[in-house]
Amino acid sequence: MARHDERMTQPAGCAHCAPSTDKKVEQPHKKALVNRVRRIEGQVGGVLNMIEDDRYCVDILTQISAVKSALDGVAIQILSTHAKGCVRQSVMDDGGDEAIEEMLGIVRKLIR
User: Fold this and answer.
1) What is the average pLDDT across 60-73?
2) At 26, phi and psi to the nearest 5?
């Protein structure tokens, strides 16, 4: 599971996140995530090239749809890690109300 960058007395893998943006969490499948995001970056560059090359609108929109789908896949993977690590630990520590609300808030943003 994810691991805090801060020196806390939590066991490795418990990954209890805080809603603060100044804390860091090491992703368990970081290399795979980085590779996926780099591929997405290449797809976005492809969209830019298509626009610059005056490609057909439907082709550009199809590529944009593929980029959005790929980003959603990365988001789901990170959300899954968060739920299984950070939120689970918060529930065990203190009932997890705050962590659950935080996670529901991000899910609401993702489904818009």
Assistant:
1) 97
2) -75, 125
61 has pLDDT over 60: yes
Q: What would the DSSP string read from start to end of the chain?
A: --EESS--SSPTT-----S-TT--EE-TTHHHHHHHHHHHHHHHHHHHHHHHTT--HHHHHHHHHHHHHHHHHHHHHHHHHHIIIIIHHHHHHH--HHHHHHHHHHHHHHT-
**Residue 104: which residues within 8 A CB-CB, separation 6 or more?**
none
Q: Is the dihedral of CA 26, 27, 30, 36 positive or negative?
A: negative
- Parallel/antiparallel/unpaired status of strands 3-4 and 25-26: antiparallel
CB atoms within 10 A of CB 23: 13
pLDDT tens-place string over residues 18-37: 455 666 778 888 999 999 99
Find out whether 61 and 46 touch, Cβ atoms under 8 Å: no
Share of the chain above pLDDT 70, in %: 79
